[in-house]
Specification:
alpha/beta, 434 Repressor (Amino-terminal Domain), 11 strands, 315 residues, 14% strand, 46% helix, Rossmann fold, 3-stranded parallel β-sheet
């Protein structure tokens, strides 16, 4: 049986990405001399010979990174795209960003377009893409990293925010302030992130012996308008029977605040769950740079932070 880069990594006690760096002489500043020598020793012991043809195919071609996002007008994706661009620029890469505008055909077109541009890798944020398309690209040895949203069954590494824990933090904070009737405005339930937020919300209420009131859970689509309309509906139907609202994104929260202000109530600066966008972007680019044929399908969760301002008060 042919020795693989994973065999070398296991013997040396390092990751396949570290072995790849040693093979490609990209160790400066990324590892100790001891680690490098340990890898070289393992290569020698196992008589490992890198696949030079695959290496040449994977070699940097254009110093361009492709990025596919679902929606250019969404503040979250806009901010994430900007940070990806800054991270890539700081490491000598240009960026081609394409927005599918939530159209799967456009998304497939842009992925094929970026492939034809010989980009060094593609960072994909997708709510609709099927695993088969991702796996087909990987079999062509095109470096793919899924960002922000995981795609079940895809063989690409996924860098995602722990949305379950983020939602749980927010709800626990409200409970600690004395709130017992907490409404939720969901995101699109076609997305894994929205499902995880809902699970975090429900589980946290249950763990704190609070009833999950389905009437206080309203649909949304990450837009200002959906936050506004859902809050208007909550206020019209239930008045003051709930004391707090957890929105699935800041843009919906801004819509919710406007709806609350229109009935004569004031809301101080927004308490929010901040996504670790810089960490997400850096990790995604690192995974593309360290791409190897013997990669493992892995998930890299990044923890969100609760930024407390004045919009939540103690009861």
């Amino acid at each position: 049986m042919k020795t693989t880069i994973k065999d070398v990594a296991k013997l040396a006690g390092v990751s396949p990405a570290t072995v790849s760096k040693v093979i490609n002489n990209k160790t400066r500043g990324s590892m100790t001399e001891k680690t490098k020598q340990s890898v070289l020793k393992a290569i020698q012991q196992l008589d490992y010979t890198p696949d030079t043809r695959a290496q040449s195919l994977r070699g940097l071609k254009t110093s361009l990174i492709g990025v596919v996002i679902p929606e250019a007008s969404c503040s979250h994706y806009e901010e994430l795209s900007r940070i990806i661009m800054e991270v890539c620029y700081s490491q000598g890469f240009g960026v081609l960003t394409c927005s599918s505008e939530n159209d799967i055909q456009r998304e497939l077109f842009y992925i094929d377009f970026l492939q034809r541009q010989k980009v060094d890798g593609i960072i994909i944020i997708s709510e609709r893409l099927k695993a088969q398309k991702i796996n087909d690209l990987i079999r062509k040895d095109i470096p793919i990293v899924l960002l922000d949203e995981d795609i079940p069954g895809a063989e690409a590494p996924a860098v995602v925010t722990d949305y379950y824990e983020g939602a749980s933090k927010a709800v626990r904070y409200l409970i600690d302030l004395g709130h017992r009737k907490i409404a939720l405005i969901k995101g699109r339930m076609t997305t894994p992130s929205s499902k995880r937020r809902l699970e975090g919300y429900v589980d946290t209420l249950i763990k704190n012996n609070l009833r999950v009131d389905e009437r206080l859970i309203k649909p949304g689509d990450f837009s200002y308008e959906s936050g506004y309309e859902a809050t208007k509906q909550l206020l019209n139907e239930y008045g003051d029977s709930f004391t707090a609202i957890f929105c699935s994104c800041d843009l919906m929260a801004v819509g919710a605040i406007q709806s609350i202000r229109e009935v004569g109530k004031s809301v101080p600066p927004l308490t929010t769950v901040a996504q670790p966008n810089l960490e997400l972007a850096k990790m995604a680019l690192d995974l593309i740079k360290e791409w190897t044929t013997e990669r493992e399908t892995r998930h890299f969760p990044c923890e969100s932070r609760l930024i407390i301002r004045q919009s939540c008060r103690r009861l």
